[in-house]
Amino acid sequence: MSDEEIPRGQYRDKYGRLQKERRAGADRRHGGEFEGNERRKMLRRKADREVLDRAHREMIEEALDDFAAEHDGHL
């Protein structure tokens, strides 16, 4: 390796010494089920989560009511 080459995951400090790049590892924020900033935008505040939870509960109750109506009131 020549003096000009810098190994991957390292950098030269102001004194010319090789230092380990702390940010060279995998970013733990990536690779989840959400793309980009989608999760942050969707669940930014606790109030947003509460609204989503309430909407989901209402949808579930409506689906159960529809199911009960189709099956003579038996769940």
Briefly characterize the structure.
The protein is 40% helix and 8% strand. With 75 residues, it is mainly alpha-helical.
Which key terms come to mind for this protein?
75 residues, 40% helix, mainly alpha, two-stranded antiparallel sheet
Shape: rod-shaped
Strand content range: 5-15%
- Give a quick account of the main beta sheet: strands, pairing sense, barrel closure: 2 strands, antiparallel
Number of distinct beta strands: 2
Structural summary, described in words:
With 75 residues, the chain is mostly helical. It has one domain. Helix content is 40%, strand content 8%. It contains two helices and two strands; from the N terminus they run ββαα. It has helices at 38-42, 46-70, and strands at residues 10-12, 18-20. A two-stranded antiparallel sheet has the order 1-2. A hairpin with a 5-residue loop joins β1 and β2 (18-20). The longest helix has 25 residues, at 46-70. The termini are far apart. The relative contact order is 0.07. The mean pLDDT is 78.
What secondary-structure arrangement, pairings included, does this model have?
Elements: E1 10-12, E2 18-20, H1 38-42, H2 46-70
Antiparallel strand pairs: 1-2
